[in-house]
Specification:
By secondary structure, this protein is of the alpha/beta class. It has a single domain, classed as 3-Layer(aba) Sandwich (Rossmann fold). It has 9 helices and 15 strands. The strands form 2 sheets. Strands 3, 4, 5, 8, 9, 10, 11, 12 and 13 form a 9-stranded mixed β-sheet that branches. Strands 6-2-1-7-15-14 form a 6-stranded mixed β-sheet, with helices on one face. A hairpin with a 3-residue loop joins strand 9 and strand 10. Helix 1 packs parallel to helix 6. The protein is globular. This is FAD dependent oxidoreductase domain-containing protein. One of its GO terms (cellular component) is cytoplasm. Its cofactor is FAD. It comes from Nasonia vitripennis.
Length: about 325
């Protein structure tokens, strides 16, 4: 059996890891991507933070996606590879002037998820009415993605740099194709539900920031490796524009510095802008048959993660692999 995983970001590579673990030497596995080095996953800060409105096909599947994802990263965090894989513990605060929704995903998984005390509401500027404190996990994509690629290559997985024009063109070479192409699925699958949401961030030097902070208006401050922090952000619905807007950059700095005034001393290192692969109606996860002349293949879809690509890639990938195993048994 020959299997192709399409997509070189966190979802594609993590799917390949699950396939490798499940199938061992019973299948030939290729990971195909137009690029492995400039994906949306490389820009994401990688914090495990699931919104209360996150939804999958069913409530049961959604909860399993989330729990499987946390368990996957937690296992890496507890392993000797934690440092090189870029997975670590991180705690922080979320502030708002609106009440927080009950969030069973976070409450049931992370070690701590509680309301802020009155003293904690005063830790930052802004006079916030509501706050939550949580202890969670952070996955640095600039560490995790190379670590996964190295692990896959060492176990015989081929990483193929190639632009695929149609899923059907792969039918003659592969029995199963797992489609993790993110926004690329808009073209490959003619999926009109795929919508780009661009987001701009700033990487700055602030080694004194050890906790994360979130606040209203897409404001966030997330510490990373080597004293670098991520300052964000914004959401431009329907935008493919990844150019750096100096007005957005100024607005991000202003909001973050107002929240944590010491950031006025943080030196800007780089500006980045990426596109979240949002899908109206949620992640596409399912099976279909394709045929090109005499050749046919089974396609498993696993795309449309929006801003939850790093967070939930392990869970949706594990689910996609189960679909692939079912399809192989039925073939």
């Amino acid at each position: 059996m020959k299997i192709a995983v399409l997509g070189g970001g966190c979802v594609g590579l993590t799917t390949a890891v699950h396939l490798q673990n499940e199938l061992r030497n019973s299948a030939k596995l290729d990971v195909i991507a137009e690029t492995f080095d400039e994906t949306t996953s490389h820009i994401a800060p990688g914090i495990f933070r699931i919104g209360a409105n996150y939804t999958g096909p069913t409530e049961e599947i959604t909860r399993k996606w989330v729990s499987d994802s946390y368990e996957y990263y937690d296992a890496i965090n507890r392993s000797p590879d934690a440092a090189i894989a870029g997975v670590t513990n991180l705690s922080g605060y979320m502030y708002s002037n609106n009440p927080f929704e009950k969030n069973p995903f976070m409450e049931e998984l992370v070690p701590i998820y509680r309301k802020c005390t009155e003293e904690e509401l005063q830790l930052v500027e802004g006079g916030w009415k509501y706050g939550m404190f949580t202890s969670t996990l952070l996955t640095h994509p600039t560490f995790y993605l190379p670590w996964v690629r190295k692990r896959l290559a060492a176990n015989g997985v081929n990483l193929v740099t190639r632009r695929v024009e149609s899923l059907k063109e792969l039918a003659k070479d592969y029995d199963i194709i797992i489609n993790c192409t993110g926004l690329g699925a808009k073209r490959l699958c003619q999926d009109r539900y795929m919508v780009p949401i661009s987001g701009q961030i700033i990487k700055a030097k602030a080694p004194w920031i050890k906790t994360f902070f979130y606040a209203d208006l897409n404001t966030y401050i997330i510490p990373g490796p080597d004293g670098l922090i991520t300052l964000g952000g914004n959401r431009e619905y329907g935008s493919y524009d990844v150019s750096i807007c100096r007005h957005q950059a100024a607005a991000i700095r202003e909001r973050c510095e107002k929240l944590v005034p010491s950031l006025t001393k943080a030196e800007t290192v780089i500006h980045k802008n990426g596109i979240r692969p949002h899908r109206e109606g949620g992640i596409r996860s399912g099976t279909e048959k394709i045929q090109d002349g005499l050749h046919s293949a089974t396609v498993i879809h696993n795309y449309g993660h929006s801003g939850y690509g790093i967070c939930t890639a392990p869970g949706t990938s594990k689910y996609a692999v189960e679909l692939a195993k079912d399809a192989h048994r039925l073939a």
